[in-house]
């Protein structure tokens, strides 16, 4: 019987053939935590009686969610995390370095075929690199840190075949919002999603990160892509580790195969307060917005700023509207400066905040007021997500956010790209 | 183990996410679980903490606990002295987190449970008794791995006891 990508990764890691629904205890290649979760990782690690991280080169802690610290409570947690990380000699990224899900692949810690566990639900992002990466809670990550292992149920897989080609002005964010709208917030619960087809192949690795990042928004455990020439090129630029790509067998058994044609896809928006509450931008065009946000582990990369700048170059954001920009890492910030993107954004009237999660999780950097609408490139629009339960969050691509801050209304970006 | 208390439901039944269970506004700055617990479910139902009583059950629909991996979510529920969460289904990270910290989760049909119903849950027989409506509801049996973790008192105790994982893998 043929195997899916995830069955092969678990078979390799356990040294025997395993299939969907088998329970395995597997070694892991890397684990990580961020400032919202690592405090409890440390508490659980200590309670387990562990003294040393299993391999200090295989764990990273990144201060990104609330960084730099906005208050003394956060500062206390940051200090605890900083002290632990330095004492354990693990990879440590202090305030301003970037979002964990940009740092971990960008600094070369993940290669195809890896098994990665992170104390953050969007750890599934690295699936874009043909790796099995998943989010778990703090105590599970503490167990990884202490033992180098964890238990897993090998998941069943859903294969998404994305046929065709994205039209101009339509991006990977629109593609994944569309898929989430189709299958729903629980449509892939406990599944490994394999995102395949010509529309995925045509994307850059950056564009693929956006899709794998949001696998969790359909409930998935993993969101994995094939390894191709672009993956190999990207890895070569970022990592010196040796690896062996993983491919699904032609006769692999899937829970479900879903096929979509992307030739006629239009820009998509997720409406409040659910990520699967998706519609074409044209359906809600004209909805007033008070704040735009470009950034996060979903859309804070160079290509995202390029798309936004194409629209914002030489233009001004509407008076009374704010545009907040947070590059996903300090490396991206430097590249965006070299390319002139930061100047374009600042000239348009944008506010640049620290590389990291920015206002996504509602702790700082742009909490909306009561009744305000926000259009954001983030991955979640739950009520209160940005720090105010009386605000409304819409999710879209960087181009849609850029077009919307010019007009002050949700706007189809294609009209600026003709 | 027999648990008894009242059912507590919310305006939204399905897809109650971990941001609603404990908001990012609190989880980043508060380390004390007893203090976190006072904000449990606040964004979905302000005043829930004051309304609930020790031993109550949270009762929901499908995909309870979706979204963020924050372990503070089951922690806030546990420290708010909720006996267990009863739902039609759970999101995967929340499911692991709850058993890891010793918060029981019960999967069953929750359509026949109304706000305020008096419930008793017998984990050994796998039955939820709705005393108000005088009906029994069968619980979906727990996977053996979760039974092991519960029996050991959570993941920390499991690792301590076995100096690693001992989960009877296939």
Overall pLDDT of chain A:
98
Rg of chain B to the nearest angstrom? 16 Å
Percent in strands of chain B: 15-25%
CATH class of the largest domain in chain B equals Alpha Beta
Q: What's the CATH topology name of the largest domain in chain A?
A: Aconitase, domain 3
Low-confidence segments of chain A = none
C-alpha end-to-end distance of chain A: 50 Å
End-to-end CA span of chain B: 29 Å
In percent, how helical is the residue content of chain A?
Answer: 25-40%
Hey, roughly how much beta strand do the residues of chain A contain? Answer: 15-25%
- N-to-C order of helices and strands of chain B: EHHHHEHEHEEEEHH
Summarize the structure.
The complex is a heterodimer of chains A (418) and B (170). With 418 residues, chain A is of the alpha/beta class.
Task: Describe the model.
The complex is a heterodimer of chains A (418) and B (170). Chain A is an alpha/beta fold and 418 residues long. Chain A folds into two domains: 256 residues, 2-Layer Sandwich (Aconitase, domain 3), CATH 3.30.499.10; 147 residues, Aconitase, domain 3. Chain A is built from 15 helices and 18 strands. Chain A is globular. The N and C termini of chain A lie far apart (50 Å). With 170 residues, chain B is α/β, with parallel strands linked by helices. Chain B folds into two domains: 138 residues, Aconitase, domain 4 (Alpha-Beta Barrel); 30 residues, no CATH class. Chain B is built from eight helices and seven strands, in the order E-H-H-H-H-E-H-E-H-E-E-E-E-H-H. Chain B has a seven-stranded mixed β-sheet. In chain B, strand 2, helix 5 and strand 3 form a beta-alpha-beta unit. In chain B, helix 7 packs across helix 8. In chain B, 49% of the residues are buried. At the A-B interface, strand 1, helix 2, helix 3, helix 5 and strand 7 of A face helix 2, helix 5, helix 6 and helix 8 of B.
SSE layout:
The complex is a heterodimer of chains A (418) and B (170).
Chain A: H1 5-14, E1 23-27, E2 30-34, H2 38-47, E3 59-62, H3 72-88, E4 91-93, H4 100-106, E5 115-119, E6 132-135, H5 138-147, E7 149-153, E8 157-163, H6 172-183, E9 192-196, H7 198-201, H8 205-213, E10 222-224, H9 229-238, E11 256-261, E12 268-270, E13 278-280, H10 281-284, E14 291-295, H11 296-299, H12 302-312, E15 322-326, H13 330-338, H14 341-348, E16 351-352, E17 373-376, E18 392-395, H15 398-407
Parallel strand pairs in A: 2-3, 2-5, 3-4, 5-6, 8-9, 8-11, 9-10, 14-15, 14-17, 15-16, 17-18
Antiparallel strand pairs in A: 1-7, 12-13
Helix pairs in contact in A: 2-5, 6-8, 12-14, 12-15
Chain B: E1 2-8, H1 18-21, H2 24-27, H3 33-37, H4 48-51, E2 57-59, H5 72-79, E3 84-87, H6 92-101, E4 105-107, E5 118-122, E6 127-130, E7 135-138, H7 144-152, H8 155-162
Parallel strand pairs in B: 1-2, 2-3, 3-4
Antiparallel strand pairs in B: 1-5, 5-6, 6-7
Helix pairs in contact in B: 7-8
